[in-house]
Amino acid sequence: MAIDLKKILKTNAKKKEFFVKWFVDGDKTKEDYNKNCKKNSEVEYNTAMEKWLLEEDVQEAIKIYMKKQRNIKMLEIYDSMYNKALSGDVKSAEWVEKFYKSDFFGDDSDEIDDFLTGINIPSLGGGKNGNK
Predict the structure, then answer these.
(1) What count of other Cβ atoms lies within 10 Å of the Cβ of residue 48?
(2) Contact 8, 58 (CB under 8 A)
(3) Which of 3, 28, 82, 105 is deepest in the core (most CB within 10 A)?
């Protein structure tokens, strides 16, 4: 699921979007900012860190982006532990089982099933004749 940070940011959305992503993913140093963010945000490091960072919409965008990044990182950890479990690592298998049962994956409904509800695809048995 892609998020559009520009919808959250009230002013200078395009420029601040680069800052938000840098702030979450970068190392927060002036050197890294100048190398990876300044060109797109078009403001000095001090302005971004002392003014933009205090704005509520920027803080909200950071929270949302950080949550999405955390979810991706958790899925990467899950994949790593899953592969170790498949190789016979018992502790990893236990971790995978606990993680799978956690609330991370949300409810049991499948997003794809929800998306496809009401769409008839004859080759999948959803046609008018009810073939399965």
Answers:
(1) 24
(2) no
(3) 82
